[in-house]
Specification:
CATH class of the largest domain: Alpha Beta
Order of helices and strands: HEHEHEHEEHEHEHEHEHEHEEEE
Distance between the termini: 59 Å
Helix content: 40-55%
Largest sheet: 8 strands, mixed
Number of domains: 2
CATH superfamily of the largest domain: Response regulator
CATH architecture of the largest domain: 3-Layer(aba) Sandwich
Number of strands: 14
Structural class: alpha/beta
Length: about 325
């Protein structure tokens, strides 16, 4: 009898836990809401992959979805779009910022009118959003980028940085982690220059060519931006420096696939951008429902369980694309 009672108690306890877990992860989708995704600029492949995932998730979350952004990496362009979305009374705005402070006033006005604000990829000022979805932990990304250089250019590599814009919050966070990890782990590895390609493939190619002409000692280019990595790789090929200079960065597999197969890029860390787009929509829906706390946990079907720590959610560990695995991914 005691054994039976114990079994019933355990069963009831497990049932209660399951019910609590279900309550935690279920989402009220009874009301249709309007959610906008505002990338740094329209046309960049990594942001198109975010859009693809967001569209897939929006269908199951009863979201009327809009993807809109400036045609160049312009903070003012994003501000103008955000102001328009506020006027149109969107329920949630999701954004990856070109400048964390310039976007803050317009996002604060949105929040004051009851609009949920979720930043992703590149954060805004913390007081100008409800939640931030961080692609991956900054130290992990910095380590992955530096290790990708060391594996092929060696511990004494002379490194150039080719980033997007001077104010890009996410790139600056990664580069801070790059410098910290590099100094601690490979003290003979040196950064000789930092230049910018404005998230434009053509401008990044020009910047890459300038780097390789001006700094012939460079053996690796770290380009933590989709367009910058493509531009750096194209510059290396254009000058016939394959096998002598290696590029790494943060770009989608479709954009760098041929450079990886040609050996210009040996290893390139990123994450599943389509999956991240799905997560953005789930967080936007929860935030619009007022169903997510500053410190919380929640589950997204097909992606897993996530922890909210002081309004920050880390999407995943770095996923390093190589010649051996890149054909497994298509985005």
């Amino acid at each position: 009898m005691k054994s039976l009672i114990k079994m019933l108690l355990v069963s009831a306890s497990l049932g209660a836990m399951a019910t609590a877990a279900h309550a935690q992860t279920s989402i009220d989708t009874s009301k249709t809401i309007k959610v906008a995704m505002v990338p740094k600029l329209i046309g960049l492949s990594v942001f198109k992959a975010n859009e693809q995932g967001a569209i897939e998730a929006a269908k199951s979350l009863n979201i009327n979805f809009l993807y809109t952004g400036p045609v160049t990496a312009s903070a003012q362009g994003q501000v103008d779009i955000i102001n328009s979305l506020v006027a149109r009374k969107f329920d949630a705005i999701t954004v990856t910022s070109n400048n964390p402070t310039e976007l803050a006033p317009s996002l604060k006005r949105a929040m004051a009118q009851g609009i949920a604000v979720v930043s992703y990829d590149s954060d805004v000022s913390p007081d100008a959003r409800d939640f931030f979805i961080q692609n991956t932990a900054y130290p992990a990304m910095g380590k992955a980028l530096v290790d990708s250089v060391e594996a092929y250019a060696g511990p004494n590599a002379q490194v150039a940085i080719l980033s997007s814009t001077p104010d890009a919050a996410i790139q600056n966070a990664w580069l801070g982690a790059v410098k910290t990890y590099m100094a601690a782990t490979y003290p003979n590895m040196k950064i000789v220059t930092t230049q910018y390609g404005q998230s434009s493939p053509s401008l990044s190619l020009s910047a890459g060519l300038n780097i390789l002409h001006a700094y012939p000692q460079v053996t690796a280019i770290i380009a933590p931006d989709g367009a910058a990595e493509v531009g750096a790789a194209a510059a290396i090929e254009k000058l016939g420096l394959q096998g002598k200079v290696f590029a790494t960065g943060a770009s989608d597999p479709n954009s760098i696939r041929q450079y990886v197969k040609d050996g210009v890029i040996k290893a390139s860390p990123l994450w599943d951008e389509v999956g991240e787009g799905k997560l953005v929509m789930y967080v936007a829906r929860l935030a619009a429902n007022h169903a997510l706390k500053s410190d919380d946990t929640f589950t997204v079907p097909g992606l897993g369980t996530y922890t909210v720590n002081n309004k920050v959610i880390i999407f995943s560990k770095p996923l390093v694309f190589t010649a051996e695995n890149i054909d497994k991914y298509n985005f």
